Amino acid sequence: MSDTDWAGWQQSWDRQQEWYMPDREERFRVMLDMVEALVGPKPRVLDLACGTGSITDRLLKRFPDAVSTGVDLDPALLAIARGTFEGDGRVTFVTADLKDPEWTKELPYDTYDAVLTATALHWLHSGPLTALYGQVAGLVRDGGVFMNADHMIDTATPRINAAERAQRHARMDEEKAAGVLDWTEWWALAAKDPALAGPTARRFEIYGDHADGDMPSAGWHADTLRAAGFGEARPVWCSPSDTLLLAVK
Ligand SMILES: C[S@@+](CC[C@H](N)C(=O)[O-])C[C@H]1O[C@@H](n2cnc3c(N)ncnc32)[C@H](O)[C@@H]1O
């Protein structure tokens, strides 16, 4: 395991994700700007559906006195996360299913200054996501924040959505022709790494290719977070396809 090039896997994960979201780093930057603005530069963070720990990585590079708990269900992405941060006392990773009503019991802390998530909650349908937002409201301390950067679709704007999608896919087709790895190809590569072959097989047993979920509008997220107990909620950044939604407890 120790011979595995974890930094290489992180870079290759980032390249694959950036093919879908060219603004991904900007989203992370604005997310951390808002963390600093609302809870300061030494936050205790929950990296929700952390994958390889992408948010935790940017958090600790920018705020060395922060601490982070990463929670996810994917054994392969968690193997990369654990390999990357091995020996770093600021970071803990927890294996849990966010649809399990008891998942918060696995966490090392009762409350967090910030719960942060990216490109993940569209894996959940809106029923389980509403339940998850209730749990998140219980984890964020008063004055703390929740932020979700994800695809959020406003069904009231079908022509804008179709035009945006067509342009996005044209750009992706061009980059694919130039050799970018997509989701399926990336997982095929992971399955060939001796350190990731077992966990990759297990993640396909858990999820199949990808879990089904919903992509409700930013308005739905803000309303649902307010109903869950947050005092304020609104977008703080958006691109034609994605929104960074911030809620303050
Ligand atoms: C596309 S990845 C994004 C990972 C990371 N946040 C990033 O931006 O690179 C989506 C993540 O959501 C996680 N996820 C989806 N459904 C989950 C669930 N029910 N419980 C825990 N994690 C889940 C997946 O395992 C995966 O790691």
From TrEMBL:
Keywords recorded for this protein, A-Z: Methyltransferase, Transferase
Entry annotated with the keyword ATP-binding: no
Listed GO MF terms: methyltransferase activity
Domain Methyltransferase per the UniProt entry, residue ranges: 45-144
Highest taxon of source: Bacteria
InterPro entries: Methyltransf_25, SAM-dependent_MTases_sf
Cited Gene3D superfamilies: Vaccinia Virus protein VP39
GO annotation (BP), single: methylation
Pfam family for this entry, one: Methyltransf_25
Entry protein name: Methyltransferase
Organism: Streptomyces hydrogenans
